Amino acid sequence: MDAPLATPCNIQICEVTCDSFRIVWDMPPEDTARATHFFIDLSRKESRDPNRFKHRDVPTKLVAKAVPLPMAVRGHWFLSPRTEYCVAVQTAVRQPDGDYLVSEWSQVVEFCTGDYAMEHLQQLLDKAKVSAGRLLKFSVFYRNQHPEYFDYVRRECGSLMRPALKDCSGSHGSPINGKLQGVFFSCNTEFDTGLPPRDSPYGPLRFQIPAGHLLNPNISLYFADFYCMYTAYHYVVLVLAPVGSEGDTFCRTRLPMLDLASNPFLTYADPQRPGEEPLFCHASDVILEVLFTEPVHLDQGSVEQISGHHQLKSLTTANAKKDPSCKVCNISVGR
Q: Is Glycoprotein tagged as a keyword (predicted)?
């Protein structure tokens, strides 16, 4: 009878991406020489099932031919970005009759997948470009809120709208979620008036600021996300960061940079003649969410009552989850 296989130990996870990882463990040289297969059991950490390994002597998830370690694991599961997983392994020798001689399961090791890499964001950007539509002129950025918000800004913050941490709405793998601070603005306009919409899901008061205060040659523009929430319309998240600022440094290695003068979403063009104003344009067929990474003083603009309604709660996006089935805004890696 063949000698039993030792239990794999010292499990290590390395080179983790949003949809792959490499795994290595220790086993005796004699096991390395005769192992023909590895069994890998992977589950999300939030699963509290104590019987995760229902059959401890047969493969439960993945059977892989034995290869030199570390072994790359990808494509066997649709791994999601920023998700905690548990993994355990067995080594095995396939017998002439087709059965397996297997080791005991290793200890369970936990790890977390990463954010979208630049290549994944580029895929998302390419999809967003298709949906952007023609460019329309605009002149102001705006931010809708309830009176309590502006009262707090004046009373407690010296009239500065301070950056807040980006929530986890949109694509789960976006590198700015829960990591980059900023103040959100809109710039979409109505087709018939060329002005900001009369309605808002965020509150009855609107802060408006001339577009040039946030979008000018001293600003870096980045693409951060493209998503929908089980609706026909799509959102594009952009980041505006003053050149050389902390926000600019954060985004430069994580997000695709856009040309201010030539991109499908948000553009700035210098005045053509003395006395003229710069030209600002926004995409017409997507809803732009613009994150400005620095504080904005209320004195730079004005706060006014909006003329329409402000109960359109279905349009709010706070911590909203992306539709994982949408073929327009999903890419081939984890959601």
A: yes
